[in-house]
Amino acid sequence: MKKANAWSLALIASISLWLGAAPAWGATAPPLSEVRVFKVESAGCSETIPERAESTQMCTHRGLTKVSVMEVGLGKSPMGRFNGAELNGQRTPVCQVGNISQACSGAGTVMGYIYVFDVNVQDSGWFDYSNTSITGPQNTLQTLLNIR
Predict the structure, then answer these.
(1) Residue 52 domain-assigned?
(2) Gap between the Cα atoms of 141 and 139, Å rounded
(3) Could you report the per-residue pLDDT of 44-89, keeping only the tens digit for each?
(4) pLDDT on residue 18
């Protein structure tokens, strides 16, 4: 059996340290399994949106309105629209840490995102969000909500 020299041992140690700090590249990304609006907030009102709701119920939203979307799984092409116009949004990764889902802070595995879109609501209309899974079968999920 051949003896390992100091250089090869140092190289293996360096690679091991680097890989230990790197993300798990071999892990399969969770497929997109759910997208839904869970909150709509405007200056006059904030309401939690129940699952399968088709419309806001508690108030009339006007002016700057924040629409929050929960996405379970990982997608590759998020798109938020209000009455057909594309919106800019901010996303926050959500990690699974043990049995708890929380905003990622360096621990856990990314399991989805929370998106918040700023919408200037002048009249009632349709908010539409869709995304396509990054893993097979690359399904596209969509949620629609009438903002009154």
Answers:
(1) yes
(2) 6
(3) 899 999 999 999 998 899 999 999 999 999 999 999 999 999 999 9
(4) 36
Look up the CATH number of the domain holding residue 35: 2.60.40.2870
Count of structural domains within the chain: 1
What are the distances in angstroms from CA 44 to CA 60, 71, 115?
Answer: 8, 26, 21
| Rounded Cα gap, residues 72 and 143, in angstroms | 13
Count helices and strands in the chain by DSSP H and E runs:
1, 10
Whether 20 is covered by a domain: the verdict is no
> Which pTM value belongs to this model?
0.79
Is 83 within a domain?
A: yes
Q: What is the pLDDT of residue 121?
A: 95
How many whole angstroms separate alpha carbon 55 and alpha carbon 4? Answer: 68
Side by side, the strands of the sheet bearing 109-121 are 45-48, 34-42, 63-72, 109-121, 89-97, 100-103
| Radius of gyration over every alpha carbon of the chain, rounded to an integer in angstroms | 21
